[in-house]
Queue: 2 jobs
Job 1
Amino acid sequence: MASTLEKGIAFVLALLVGGTTSFQLYKDWATTGLDNQVTKLLLGLMAFGCLLVLLACVGVLGGG
């Protein structure tokens, strides 16, 4: 029961954070400059992490 609740919370929050991150990355995509490039890299890594969490929640990654 507890693991199902934890997976559900992680799934919802990964959707929220991943969606926000993807939207911000979309808005910042055309910007230039070193600081903006670092920001885009970090946003991309955060979106990738959210994708990994989503895959783990549905049982594709990890022990299930």
Job 2
Amino acid sequence: MDDGVDDGKGITEEFWSKGLTDDAKMMWRVGSRGVTFLAALLLPKTGFKVVDIAVGVLTMLIPLLVIETQRAYSKFSPGFLAWVIRISVFASGVAMASLGLVVYFGVVMPLVSAVGIPFFQQSASLQFQGQSGVELVGFWWMAAVTGFAVMYAVFKNFRETKVFEIVYHLPRNGVRQLMQERPLRASNWPMFVWFELCVLIASFFYTLMASQAALLVVDGTQQVLMLFGISL
């Protein structure tokens, strides 16, 4: 865009409509669809078909919406474009929240477990040794206080270092700005390929985070249920 004036067109619309032949468009469409389908197959599986299918559909749907709207931005109604932007921003938010779950279960929970397991083992041994209930309550109280202290310290550190802003707000705001303001134009083949490949890679990363979070939740739930003799 020149002089900051919005021409009402998408990032790749001008090049897609005038810079590519119909043959090239068809080959690129087939290739990009093949990449998204392969990405959906490569995602980790939770073992629950509903969850796996939903994540796979998102892997193929999100880049389709973003890419196709940028190829013909001026031809869509404002209401439809607003809906696509909301879906894209929501998807990025879900992905970043999933990244938070991955960090939580991968960093915080091991720390809490490392602290809590010795207390659990000690209280169990006291129970087997026939110690009084007061001593057992004391051990469990110390375990709970220590566990909460560890979690509070980790979350406080995350907040002070603005990790949440970096991994959640910045990506969401970036997606919103890219979709609404469209600050660049793909005027040649390298820029066109770069933009659409970035969309495909980012979409795969987002859905990968969601699938990893779902996998962690499913595995964690199964482990907890197994402690009570329940299996899924």
